[in-house]
Each structure stands twice: as structure tokens, then as C-alpha cells.
Predict the 3D structure of the following.
Amino acid sequence: MVSLSLRRRGTDAIVTYGPRHRFIRQVEISRGGNTGELYSRCSGKSRCKGLHIRAIGAGPTGLACAIEAQKIGLKVIVVDKGCLVNSLFHYPANMVFFTTPELLEIGDIPFTTAQQKPTREEALEYYRKVSEYYHLDLRQYEWVKTVVGEDGNFSITATDRAGRPHDYHTGKVIVSTGYYDLANQLTIPGEELSKVSHYYREPHPYYGTDVLVIGGKNSAAIAALDLWRHGARVTLVHRDAQVHHHVKYWIKPDIENRIKNGDIEAYFNSSVQEIGIDHVVVNTPRGPIRLKNDFVLALIGYHPDYDFLRSMGIELSDQQCRPVCDPVSLESNVPGVYVAGVIVAGSRTNEIFIENGRFHGKQIADDLKRKLRS
Ligand SMILES: Cc1cc2nc3c(=O)[nH]c(=O)nc-3n(C[C@H](O)[C@H](O)[C@H](O)COP(=O)(O)OP(=O)(O)OC[C@H]3O[C@@H](n4cnc5c(N)ncnc54)[C@H](O)[C@@H]3O)c2cc1C
């Protein structure tokens, strides 16, 4: 007989494996420790180990997964390389979400905002409160580097802020690592210069300077408008003939009219060929032109960490790098490893966002519940 002690916020749960692989598990449901205890029966040692879930990534999806798994009585630890909802924290400081608040809700906790759409700050506050409400076991600033093992018995190695390694064991793994850490590259000379960024934060540092914004989707359009409104001289370069049709209906006429009016200079069907310290060279339909330049914001999108997914044995599709997974359970081709959130869409990051990725938690929890009971 083997005993395993699970410690959670002062409450110990003892899981005991008997000779016939039957055990009684004591779990806390829903909110850790506050809503009572549930006793249920399952059988088999590997299933028992499945009581431990580790969610990699504390974005909205990772949190939703942790909440839903916790609701069915599983013990979940959420690990993030940065802070809670790290991607949202790094979004433009004054951003307003496109989505109305009820579509960003997780764990059935209402999200109300002063205006029609939430600000970044309101969203950060909301996800903090939800994590607190559910007593989520969060490990911030732990960067997961490797996941090895097999269903019911995975080993995870993470490094903390000081670079110290930490090893963990878990029965199941949910990977919800998002896409915002890895920016798509231009792969042109000068991209490595410090004046080039793939992230836009706020307009103030660009006041009175020549800024080139590359891209034609929401992030580029919003940044170009914000920069122009705060005193930067803005040029927009986009490889297509016009701003993308996905640009939100209240932003599109704004950027188009600023361009028409000559407030923002724009080059369509164009691409940047080279970035220098004080200039850029742009390939336009009329040939290359050289523009005076202080800063470049290359807002051309982001992509999931494909190498990290592959390192776990997760297969990716050829063209769009979508992880091979069951579309209902979201279990990947590696048994016991689930994928969730925007990574499920591979390179098509505009297909899954908070609005729909938040439901992945329930899909995964339903599968785990079914497996534990069978
Ligand atoms: C400017 C902007 C505005 C947006 N507005 C909206 C909107 O209005 N509505 C909407 O629905 N969507 C919006 N989105 C998209 C939305 O934010 C993303 O689709 C969503 O954050 C994806 O959620 P996720 O949990 O899958 O990934 P993320 O939120 O990116 O979370 C992934 C987490 O994993 C962590 N992580 C990554 N690798 C590791 C590792 N190896 N170890 C540990 N942790 C790791 C990261 O630090 C991060 O916290 C917007 C995106 C941007 C860029």
C-alpha cells in the first residue's frame, strides 16, 4: 500500500492505493477548501496520479482550465513564466478590449465595467479577483523548459527568476502558453537595432519623432492612430492593398480617413527592405524610397512556441502548425497532454481568442472527469 499526501492551503488529503488499486480520494471542490469535501471512487494507480494537473500558462485560458478542473475535484497548479495574465499585462498600456466584458468571463464570475468595453487595467483586476476567488494555486515567474514522461507520470522542469531549476511531477499537463511572447520577424537587415520593437506600449516616448509602423491589422492601426494623436510623425507600411478587413468597424474608418487626409502617410503593397540608424528603405510599387526614421514598430503578429510544443512530442500540422489534438477533448497526440487557448489554432492566431478559448477549460475538464470515472 502506498500513501501520497496532497497538501493544499492547510488541508491534507491522503490518497491511498490499495492492493486492488481501489482508493478513496478526498478532494476539495470548486473553491479550494471553502465549499466542502467530495468523496468519490475511482480505480487504477495511473488514474490516481491524474489527480495532479499542471497548467502551463496563466493566461485567461490557463485560468479557465484550472477553475474547471478544480470544480471536478482535481488539484491544479498553474505555472507562468511571468505574472498572472502576463500577455495582457504586456499589451498597450491604455488599450481597450474589442470584446464586451461578459465575453471575457471565466469561472461564471461576472465582469462588469464602467464603459461598454473593458480597459486593460479592468481586465487585469478581473482576472486577479477570479484567481483569488477560486484560490488558484499559482506559481508566477516559473518558466517551464521541459515536459517529459507519460500519461499519469510526467516530469516538468522549470526555472525561476534566479535561473534556479525546479522539478515537478504531475499526472496530466495542460499547455496554454499563448502566442504573445514570440513576435513574427521581418528578417531584414537592421531588425536587430534597438530602435525596432515588435510591441507597442504607449505614445509618449515617440512624441516629435518619425515613427514607421509596419502592419495592416488592428494592432498596427491602433498604434498608428494613437501615435499620431500624441504628436508623432507616423508612416504606415503594409504589404496588402489596404488595411485588413478584420480591422474593427470603429477603427477602420478612423485610420482610413487619417490616411486620406494626409495626417498619416501610408504605403500599401509595400514592404520594408532595410532599417538603418536614421532611415528606412521601403519597397513601394513605384520603386524603393528612403525615409527619415527614428523608430520602427513592426506590428506584424505573433506565433506560439512551436519548438516547445514539439519538444513534448506534440505533432504540428505542416502548413499552419496546429497541434494534433482531439477537437472535443483537446487531448493532444501525446496521451495526458492537453492543449488549450490560442495555441490550438497554430499560426491562425485570429481564430481563437479569449472569447472562445475560455471554453477549452470545460472541454478538458469533461474529458478528465470521464476518464476518472470510467
Ligand atoms: C492588443 C491585443 C488586444 C486583444 N484584444 C482582445 C479582445 O478584445 N478580445 C479577445 O477575446 N481577445 C483579444 N486579444 C487576443 C487575446 O488576448 C489572446 O487570444 C488570449 O490572451 C489568448 O489566451 P491564452 O490564455 O491562450 O494565452 P495568453 O493570454 O497569451 O497566456 C499564455 C501564458 O503562458 C505563459 N507562458 C508561455 N510560455 C510559458 C512557459 N514555457 N512556461 C510558463 N509559462 C509560459 C505566458 O507568460 C502567458 O501568461 C487581444 C490580443 C492583443 C495582442
